[in-house]
Amino acid sequence: MTTTAAKKVGIAGAIVGAASAGVAAVALAKRYAVGRIRLRPDAEAGEPFGELRGRERTLITSDGVALHVEVDGPEDAPLTIVFSHGYCLNMESWHYQRQALREQHRIVLWDQRSHGRSQMAPADQSTIDRLGDDLAEVIDTFVPGPCVLVGHSMGGMTMMALADRHPSLFDDKIRGAALIATSAGRLAELTLGLPALLSKAVHLVAPPTVSLLGRRGALVDKTRHAGSDIAFLITRYIGFGDSRNVSPTLVDFVETMIRATPTEVVANFYSALMNHDKLSALGVLDDVPTAIMVGDRDWLTPPDHSKAIAAALPRAQLTEVPGTSHLIQLERPDAVNEALQDLLKRVDT
Q1: How far apart, in whole angstroms, are the C-alpha atoms of residue 135 and residue 161?
Q2: Contact at 8 Å (CB) between 136 and 159?
Q3: Residue 38's CB: how many other CB atoms inside 10 A?
Q4: What is the rounded distance in angstroms from the CA atom of residue 285 to the CA atom of residue 243?
Q5: CA–centroid distance for 22 within its chain
């Protein structure tokens, strides 16, 4: 080997070594940061997340998808509360609401198609309108009397699709509604707290990137299932407004739900969420008592989106919870439960 070639090899080796050392240092720093977070006092360490169970049922939808449904609470209760969860979550995300309401109220929870324990649907059947039809079938099958609908994020959009496609249900069957951290549209305009130029670049790059990941979903999932410190930190920062004090056990619980959602499902519903526009359907909900809730630090469905819903529903009650982000029902369960109890008092059964 010539002297020049040896120098090049030496330089290349030094660069690779430095890069490897840098990556190792970053990984060590993340592990140290997460380790310190986990050592803090955790009031929810003993909380039975994911352990609450009801009477398990299966619904085969009109297009052949098997939905996992659970019925909880007394069967003879005069009112049923139907909970619809958000994107990349499942029915367990209603842990604290189920815990608070199951003694006195009949509760129906369901995993939306392709989420939780429900069957994965094809891409062309992964739409918000189809979720609205699913909810109509859940109500028809499992709700014998009057009901109140509660939806978080994509679950709120599901309720809007129901109002758009099955408005007659709001004449007698549906007596109240709660829209939590959701949007009637314009999600493609979100800044996510980024400067305008960078936000525009993210929205430009995101659709093809998500589509590509979806096509290689099985490969991506092999790495996701291992979990990571990065996923923990991202979930903690984006999902919770008070990220410094949120329970590590709660963060792990949420991150596990997200990680259990196949990458293909994330990709299949992404465009449906970005194209969601149901502002014109909101008038149907104005016929029933409606509660709207949002955290003032919600980056995914910001307060302006809830305010737009409230403007279309002048009789609705809007609650903006300070210091709270998108997972409001888990981060501030007492505030959400109080709002739901108030809504139930206003419902005519």
Answers
A1: 9
A2: no
A3: 14
A4: 34
A5: 35
Its pTM stands at 0.84
Quick check: 239 and 253 in contact, CB under 8 A?
A: no
Per-residue pLDDT of the chain (349 residues; tens, 9 = 90+): 544 444 333 333 333 333 333 333 333 344 444 555 565 778 888 999 999 999 999 999 999 999 999 999 999 999 999 999 999 999 999 999 999 999 999 999 999 999 999 999 999 999 999 999 999 999 999 999 999 999 999 999 999 999 999 999 998 899 999 999 999 987 655 544 544 444 444 445 555 555 544 455 455 555 655 557 888 888 998 899 987 889 999 999 999 999 999 988 998 998 889 889 999 999 999 989 999 999 999 989 999 999 999 999 999 999 999 999 999 999 999 999 999 999 999 997 6
Cα(158)–Cα(134) distance, integer angstroms: 9
CA–CA distances in Å: residue 298 to residues 146, 187, 192, 267? 32, 13, 9, 22
Cross-strand partners of 295: 321
The residue assigned the tokens 């030496």 is 10
- Token pair for residue 179? 């829209």
Encode 184-207: b = buried (16+ Cβ within 10 Å), e = exposed.
bbebeebeeeeeeeeeeeebeeee
- Cβ atoms < 10 Å from Cβ of 285: 26
Tallying the residues shown for the chain, one arrives at: 349
